[in-house]
């Protein structure tokens, strides 16, 4: 069931968001990140840039990214099943790239499973191109990762 658009905001993620983020992570990935890894990404420092997207008061998705010199590296992004295909991922990624530009980044990168055609198509709509491959990147099944990148 698709929810109505409602009021949507993107904000910085923080430790109090961990429970909802963990639920979305479990619903989104066959090999979800452990709670400790998600919690670490919510730490406040100059490198980590967690974002959450909130609709009608509830977290519907998150983006975990690092800023390394002038590169914005997206390490994890997910939207709740009920929020998918409704533009929330687009809004989340747009907010992240806006923050990256404001922080002086000129390049965005990420890894994605070679089998994840929907995610690859989503990122390609943002101008991300394949720049490499990481063989056997994913520990759960040894699947390769595509490295995607774009100028921002």
Low-confidence stretches: none
If you consult CATH, what is the topology? Aminopeptidase
Overall CATH architecture: 3-Layer(aba) Sandwich
Number of helices: 4
Q: Could you say how many structural domains there are in total?
A: 1
Structural class: alpha+beta
Shape summary: globular
Strand order of the largest sheet: 1-2-3-4-5-7-6
Number of strands: 7
How many strands, what sense, and barrel or not for the largest sheet?
A: 7 strands, mixed
The average pLDDT is 93
> What letter string, H or E per element, gives the SSE order?
EHHEEEHEHEE
| Radius of gyration based on Cα positions | 15 Å
Query: What is the name of the CATH class?
Result: Alpha Beta
Query: Terminal Cα separation, in Å?
Result: 35 Å
Q: Considering DSSP H and I runs of 4 or more, what fraction of the residues is helical?
A: 25-40%
Percentage of residues in strands? 25-35%
CATH level-four homologous superfamily name: Gcn5-related N-acetyltransferase (GNAT)
Structural summary, described in words:
There is one protein chain. The chain has 152 residues and is α+β, with helices and mostly antiparallel strands. It has a single domain, classed as 3-Layer(aba) Sandwich (Aminopeptidase). Helices cover 28% and strands 33% of the residues. The chain contains four helices and seven strands; from the N terminus they run βααβββαβαββ. It has helices at 18-28, 35-41, 88-102, 117-125, and strands at 8-12, 51-55, 58-68, 71-79, 107-113, 129-134, 145-151. The chain has a seven-stranded mixed β-sheet. It is globular and about 40 Å long. The protein starts with 7 loop residues before the first strand and ends with a strand. The mean pLDDT is 93.
